[in-house]
Amino acid sequence: MKNLLIIVLAFFVGTSVFYLGKQKSHQNMHLHNQKIGHKSLMVVDPYARVSSSSAKSGAIFFTIENGTNFEHRLIGAAVDVAKKAELHTHIVNDDGVMSMVKIKDGVTIEPNSKVMFKRGGNHVMIMGLNKSLMNGDKVSLDLIFENKVLKLEVLVDNKKTAKKHDHNMNH
Ligand SMILES: [Cu+2]
Q1: Are strands 57-66 and 113-117 parallel, antiparallel or unpaired?
Q2: What does the DSSP 8-state code read for residue 95?
Q3: What is the pLDDT of residues 75-112, one digit of tens each?
């Protein structure tokens, strides 16, 4: 009887060690996978624009590069220089008229891909500016993702032209 108990105990200890070991290797695999996507989630080439120094609103543009193997979703934004920051995009109606609309469900950046926020497309709209923005001024921008917040400093650059090759890099 005593022997049987020992055998049963040994069996349980054995299986739980095996199970823990399995879990650990699974966790390692998970971390390893994340590493394969050479980079993290990052924002490149950000800049802000205002139409004039007396403007009450402006827009911020950038490219989000998702170098991870996980989907990320941008769901909101905040800035220090304005009351409100919203994710906007442009739509063209049946008459060919372009207008701005608020993005409701956020913007998904697929694993190992990028999404551009560019002129005539997606942008962060900043509304209710509490100071006039000039070329070279700094704006603190928080990009709010589902799982994290990326904080960045963006320069106002009213002279920046919309790059031609932007159109080819839409996808
Ligand atoms: Cu807008």
Answers
A1: antiparallel
A2: T
A3: 999 999 999 999 999 999 899 999 999 999 999 999 99
Query: Which amino acid is present at 61?
Result: F
Residue located via tokens 């049987």: 4
Q: Give me the residues near ligand 1 (ion), CB cutoff below 5 Å.
A: 88, 100, 125
Gap from CA of 86 to ligand 1 centroid (Å): 8
Query: What tokens does 40 get?
Result: 């993290």
pLDDT tens by residue, 4-40: 666 555 655 555 544 444 444 444 334 333 433 446 8
User: In angstroms, what is the span from residue 123 Cα to ligand 1's centroid?
Assistant: 6
**113 vs 68, 106, 154, 163, CA distance in Å?**
9, 16, 22, 20
Rounded (10°) CA dihedral 143, 146, 149, 154: -10
Its pTM surpasses 0.70: yes
In angstroms, what is the span from residue 124 Cα to ligand 1's centroid?
7
Task: Tell me how far the alpha carbon of residue 82 lies from the centroid of ligand 1, in angstroms.
Answer: 14
- Ligand 1 mean position, distance from CA 117 (Å): 11
102 Cα: distance to centroid of ligand 1 (angstroms)? 7
